[in-house]
Design goal:
The structure is a homodimer.
Chain A (H helix, E strand, L loop, with lengths): L3 E6 L5 H10 L4 E6 L11 H18 L4 E4 L2 H14 L4 E2 L2 H11 L4 E6 L1 H6 L1 H7 L4 E6 L3 H6 L6 H21 L5 E4 L8 H7 L5 E4 H12 L13 E6 L3 H12 L6 E3 L5
Parallel strand pairs in A: 1-2, 1-3, 2-9, 3-4, 5-6, 5-7, 7-8, 9-10
């Protein structure tokens, strides 16, 4: 039986998680829902985000038949995982715990940095997950990185400067806090597109951890999927969005690493 | 009788319009609603924006008793003015036509540039309004400027570079189109906070027109308000938001030019 995996995001950034899932579990069927009518979740309250994410999860499970759910949105994972698990009867995986676990596996000093959106940082969900693993952690919001990625400036000198500003502030804060960090966690699904620039900008020796890849690894284990063999991939991918289908199709392929195909418009009643 | 003026925006950028209104009509009562739960409108479809904006307008008129409405949001003015006028029985003023009229009054060559969000540009509402006045017009989306303002980088060298990139592209496009522009319209309520940087960056001799100020001038005429005399201002301002009241209070005073006071949370049912 081909498993059906639902992937939920506030927008289309979570396509970087789907991309990592496709590399590891290429024989599943995927339904991806981007709640583009109500993005960004990053600036909204916990109550609102929980309400929106639960509606999206119900669509994927009840209407698309998803047997497993990946919440490919850091903000929703941080603020709404409990609310989602209450409304759907399938295993649900967020991106926070896998990202923290990957940081734990990578760090030798036990001190890690996390960059993310405002709401993810304010939730301190990464800090909680990292501290539960005995790591010391410093989180920083980098609100300009998402719009820079969406503008397509993933190799632009202005983006390099913005990254330098943020990382310099982060280094100063780490110094003040006495952290000897060796790991930087990308706590936003847009950031993998900036990974080359971020790897160039970090202090030499600092490892960059991509939550998207860590989540796909965790999905394989949680959902008891087998690692892909040499068979040709047969994955079927259907993409849904609550608004702005054109923008999703135009920008989404950059995140997914292949064309998204026709994106279907759905109404969650918002 | 003290008039009650409702001011609607998708976020709090429209506080720059309220600021201009307060300078001109300081004796009115104002109710400002920012639909922060569902911002940004700039990346959403016409259908969604019309639905959201109509709900906001109904709140201001039916629940707050507004006798006049200013739609202090370029995207909603561009895409939802008709939808709003259908649901409320009071005079409604958007920011597009006043901005175009001010450009018409300022331009000697008859060629103007407009910078705005993606959705405002894609609606070509400024182009239509300018062309109806016999102007030739070139519109450009500058998606990074709103997040830069919200990050507080209104005097930052990175912002100056982003502005240079956008204005250079705009100059090249104007040259190709054979436009001899002498006027730049700020078609987004966030942009007045970048006015000093924009005025520094434009070609000498180019006038910068602020739609917020143009709209407040138009409101005085449409609503038959008298110009403020020398009496002390008595304006009463109440601010409402659909989410993220903290962020509204924290950032809003920069836009309004004075503290917003306590922002009240309202639920529009989204």
């Amino acid at each position: 039986m081909t498993p059906i995996i639902g992937v939920f995001d506030s927008g289309f950034g979570g396509l970087t998680v789907l991309r990592a899932l496709l590399q590891r579990i290429p024989h599943a069927c995927y339904s991806f829902l981007g709640d583009t009518a109500r993005l960004p979740y990053g600036s909204k309250s916990r109550r609102t985000i929980a309400h929106y994410a639960a509606e999206g999860a119900e669509f994927l499970v009840k209407e698309q038949g998803a047997e497993f759910l990946v919440i490919a949105c850091n903000t929703a994972s941080a603020l709404a995982l409990d609310a989602i698990q209450e409304v759907v009867p399938v295993p649900v995986l967020g991106v926070i715990e896998p990202g923290a676990a990957a940081a734990w596996a990578a760090s030798k000093t036990g001190d890690v940095l996390v960059i993310a959106t405002d709401a993810t940082v304010q939730s301190h969900a990464y800090a909680a997950a990292c501290e539960a693993l005995g790591l010391r952690v410093l989180e920083k919001a980098c609100p300009l990185l998402v719009p820079l990625v969406e503008e397509g400036w993933t190799g632009h000198p202005v983006t390099a400067q913005v990254i330098d500003v943020y990382l310099k502030e982060l280094r100063n804060q780490a110094r003040e806090a006495g952290l000897y960090y060796d790991t930087l966690v990308l706590g936003c699904t847009h950031y993998p597109l900036l990974r080359p620039m971020l790897e160039q900008a970090v202090t030499p020796g600092v490892q960059v951890i991509d939550s998207a890849e860590a989540t796909a690894d965790a999905a394989m284990r949680l959902f008891r999927m087998e690692q892909a063999g040499n068979e040709p991939p047969t994955a079927d991918v259907r993409c849904f969005a609550t608004d702005s289908v054109d923008k999703f199709e135009r920008l989404g392929s950059r995140f997914l690493g292949r064309p998204t195909g026709k994106v279907e418009l759905v109404d969650l009643g918002g």
